[in-house]
Amino acid sequence: MTAPLGVILAGGRATRMGGGDKGLLMLRERPLIGHVIDRLTPQCATLAINANGDPARWDDFALPVLPDSVADQPGPLAGVLAGLDWAAARGADAIVTAAADTPFCPADLVARLQAQVGPSGLCLAASPDSTGRLQRHPTFGLWPVALRDDLRVALTDGLRKIVLWTDRHASGVAVFDSVPHDPFFNVNAPEDMAQAETLLGRA
């Protein structure tokens, strides 16, 4: 299959980390988003960052910065829509999204999502939690450009929860192993950064 475009969702406000952009927090002398870029670059045709506010703060990464096209920052789905509009303008068929605060995202994310795609072209990533229960990770997905207008209408109508929209379209699910650690581990609090340092040392 053709490599999709990649969009890194960097809209988190890091309230538990003191505010600011989580993706710019440093992990081993590299911003969190830098680790995500390193992992996604070999898998995607090209990358962009979804973020609002002054785009200059992302200049070090030399990537397009896509603001939400929907008002009031309604959440990750708005970032998906911004990515789909960007992809459509480039003549692409799909995007893959990843969160900016997940430094261990899978090196085979794209291939696994493409292998489990649903009939609509959608697929979300999932992994088992510590109890073995499967948890979907809705900021990690394969999204077809063909559904962008449907998503725009859903957002305009007030939809915010990603899985409510993906379930409407019979999304596939790609399951990733959580051993030795969950590849979708994300940094939400200072203790998570300490854990990320430990995991990176083991890697």
Automatic annotation (TrEMBL):
<feature type="domain" description="MobA-like NTP transferase">
    <location>
        <begin position="6"/>
        <end position="164"/>
    </location>
</feature>
<comment type="similarity">
    <text>Belongs to the MobA family.</text>
</comment>
<keyword id="KW-0342">GTP-binding</keyword>
<keyword id="KW-0479">Metal-binding</keyword>
<dbReference type="GO" id="GO:0046872">
    <property type="term" value="F:metal ion binding"/>
</dbReference>
<feature type="binding site">
    <location>
        <position position="50"/>
    </location>
    <ligand>
        <name>GTP</name>
    </ligand>
</feature>
<keyword id="KW-0963">Cytoplasm</keyword>
<keyword id="KW-0460">Magnesium</keyword>
<keyword id="KW-0547">Nucleotide-binding</keyword>
<dbReference type="GO" id="GO:0005525">
    <property type="term" value="F:GTP binding"/>
</dbReference>
<dbReference type="InterPro" id="IPR029044">
    <property type="entry name" value="Nucleotide-diphossugar_trans"/>
</dbReference>
<feature type="binding site">
    <location>
        <position position="68"/>
    </location>
    <ligand>
        <name>GTP</name>
    </ligand>
</feature>
<dbReference type="Pfam" id="PF12804">
    <property type="entry name" value="NTP_transf_3"/>
</dbReference>
<feature type="binding site">
    <location>
        <begin position="9"/>
        <end position="11"/>
    </location>
    <ligand>
        <name>GTP</name>
    </ligand>
</feature>
<feature type="binding site">
    <location>
        <position position="22"/>
    </location>
    <ligand>
        <name>GTP</name>
    </ligand>
</feature>
<keyword id="KW-0548">Nucleotidyltransferase</keyword>
<dbReference type="InterPro" id="IPR013482">
    <property type="entry name" value="Molybde_CF_guanTrfase"/>
</dbReference>
<dbReference type="GO" id="GO:1902758">
    <property type="term" value="P:bis(molybdopterin guanine dinucleotide)molybdenum biosynthetic process"/>
</dbReference>
<protein>
    <recommendedName>
        <fullName>Molybdenum cofactor guanylyltransferase</fullName>
        <ecNumber>2.7.7.77</ecNumber>
    </recommendedName>
</protein>
<dbReference type="InterPro" id="IPR025877">
    <property type="entry name" value="MobA-like_NTP_Trfase"/>
</dbReference>
<comment type="function">
    <text>Transfers a GMP moiety from GTP to Mo-molybdopterin (Mo-MPT) cofactor (Moco or molybdenum cofactor) to form Mo-molybdopterin guanine dinucleotide (Mo-MGD) cofactor.</text>
</comment>
<feature type="binding site">
    <location>
        <position position="101"/>
    </location>
    <ligand>
        <name>GTP</name>
    </ligand>
</feature>
<dbReference type="GO" id="GO:0061603">
    <property type="term" value="F:molybdenum cofactor guanylyltransferase activity"/>
</dbReference>
<dbReference type="GO" id="GO:0005737">
    <property type="term" value="C:cytoplasm"/>
</dbReference>
<feature type="binding site">
    <location>
        <position position="101"/>
    </location>
    <ligand>
        <name>Mg(2+)</name>
    </ligand>
</feature>
<keyword id="KW-0501">Molybdenum cofactor biosynthesis</keyword>
<comment type="subunit">
    <text>Monomer.</text>
</comment>
<keyword id="KW-0808">Transferase</keyword>
